[in-house]
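Researcher: Please translate sequence to structure tokens.
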Amino acid sequence: MDPVPQDFLPLRQPVTAALPVGPHGTVLPTGNPGSLATLMRHAGEVSLAGDLQDLRPGRGLHPTVPRATPTRRPWRRMGLRLVVGLFFLWGLAFNVSEVRGSSMEPGIHDRDHVMVDHVTFHLAGLDRGDIVVLQYPLDPSLDYIKRVIGLPGDKVVISRGSVFVNGAILDEPYVGPHSVEPWTHLETVVRADHCFVLGDNRKRSSDSREFGQVPYGNVRGKAMFRFWPMGRFGTLD
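Model: Translation complete:
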């Protein structure tokens, strides 16, 4: 059998001896510097030496991985903004008002604190029997709390202590037995965008009998429930 041509011999021979190591763990080339095998081995060792330059003593063969810089989670900041926004919207939609006076007794007393809704009125309008907070027509700097009796187009008649709306007597369980003025007589038709209001304590109330019909623009909101005192906490009827 003919000998194998030299061109097909392995270009790299197995390494049987320990390779000399230079500074920083760099493997130094060995063998005939002019041979092809030596040049190829040297090229691979130079590449390996470049990869090992970042190694540090005492850390083995594991390269140093830079630590991630801690960052604040974005959802925390978004949550804080959401809470602040909700409080802002709550302040625009609701507020607690302190009642001064006895014009709404026996249901609402002096110094009661009521929650006022400023949104529902604009979305759903008013209904007869609603308790509203309104700007006093003769002095808008003052707020009054009254009950809606008549709506636009209603004919309101007060006679002998009773209230009639469109010819039907109005059932008023919220009026105390000693709160009616039997000598009052009044007839009126409620104008557009106005309402007719009365206090539940008719003997001690300044209301539409005195200052007339109230423009819708003077209505600030509906009194929804009593916030204080806690012993009478609950919705207002």
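Researcher: Any highlights?
Model: The chain has two domains: 17-63, 93-235.
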